[in-house]
TrEMBL record:
Entry's Gene Ontology BP terms: regulation of DNA-templated transcription; transcription elongation-coupled chromatin remodeling
Chief subcellular location: nucleus
Gene3D superfamilies assigned: 3.30.40.210
Keywords: Metal-binding, Nucleus, Transcription, Zinc, Zinc-finger
Entry GO MF terms: RNA polymerase II complex binding; zinc ion binding
Organism of provenance: Rubus argutus (Southern blackberry)
Role this protein plays: May regulate transcription elongation by RNA polymerase II. May enhance transcriptional pausing at sites proximal to the promoter, which may in turn facilitate the assembly of an elongation competent RNA polymerase II complex.
Domain Spt4/RpoE2 zinc finger span(s) in chain numbering: 18-94
Identification of the protein by name: Transcription elongation factor SPT4 homolog
GO CC annotations, alphabetized: DSIF complex
Highest taxon of source: Eukaryota
Entry's localization field: Nucleus
Lineage: Eukaryota, Viridiplantae, Streptophyta, Embryophyta, Tracheophyta
């Protein structure tokens, strides 16, 4: 992977402490988000405020996919995560970002696609 982005942390546990970022769907443990934030969404500054980990992530998600080369993965393209760093991602989240975090996305000029309501 010549010139590839530095991969995200791999979850250190696959138990109940897993959480998914509500914007990019990266999956890590609560402690990993608290200590290092989200590699795709550094502007949320989760590593500076544990309340933002609770606000910007969810333990409620469906499925996990590991993506090693997002640019070449058809699954990453289909899931719309091909521009993110290599790592573990959820297939779907059902919660939306809070209005405050949506405003941060707008201020940073980064795309946020809310989950589809069923």
């Amino acid at each position: 992977m010549k010139g590839a982005a530095q991969p995200a942390q791999i979850p250190t546990s696959f138990g109940n402490e897993l959480r998914a970022c509500l914007r990019c769907r990266l999956v890590k443990t609560y402690d990993q988000f608290r200590e290092n934030g989200c590699e795709n969404c550094p502007f949320f500054k989760m590593d500076e405020d544990s309340d933002l980990v609770n606000e910007g992530t969810t333990p409620n998600f469906n499925g996990i996919i590991s993506v090693m080369d997002p640019d070449k993965s058809w699954a990453a393209k289909w899931l719309r995560i091909s521009r993110f760093v290599p790592g573990c991602y959820t297939l779907a989240v059902s919660e939306a970002l809070s209005e405050d975090l949506q405003n941060i996305c707008e201020d940073e000029r980064v795309q946020y696609v809310p989950p589809k309501r069923v």
